[in-house]
Write a structure and sequence with these properties.
five-stranded mixed β-sheet; single chain; 6 helices; six-stranded mixed β-sheet
Length: about 230
Amino acid sequence: MPIILCIETTSTNCSVALASEKGGYKNDMNVKNCLDLLEDKSDSYSHGELLHVYIKELLNRNNLTIEDLAAVAISKGPGSYTGLRIGVASAKGLCFAQDIPLISIDTLRALSLQVPQNKTVIPMMDARRMEVYSAVYTNGELKEKVAATILEEDSFQRYLKSGDATVLGTGAAKFQELTADRSNEYVSSVPTALTMCNLAIQAYKKSDTVEDIAYFEPFYLKEFKSN
């Protein structure tokens, strides 16, 4: 039974999980394929200090070693430039050293899985000022692909007018304040490796989802700007 290391570093949350079909990790997000999870949801970007410590601790407490991994899954973005670089570099290094596949997971898709899928879900990552990285899913199906969106008072109205949508992520509170909407649900949340687990297992079973370790780059969506 394959065990996949999942790495999420696109926000302030340094998060690692072990994905396995046997599962076992108790959670309230309906994730069945998680064996264990370790993360730090503090507001500081500490991926450089914590990531490899967390990976080692997660493996140790499950009596596993790097050699037991069948693949590594990385949250590919969009998100923090620095976080993405650290996460992807670590994932590629592990895959190259162990000669195992690298799997990339869409960050906003994984984020959307934190809430039930039987409605419209708008995952939204803060991208500074009034901009967010967003997508739209309805009943689990992609309706609007990932885009950099400048928030306005009437943004996403075609999806919000029904009053039963969920907006979640690091940009949710900013958008709710702008719209003064009280009909839909707004959930402030950071991406987690937990919701990568089911996606990683699914991707591992499909040969066309494996990335080229030498050429894979994070999905930045926008060019880096220092100010």
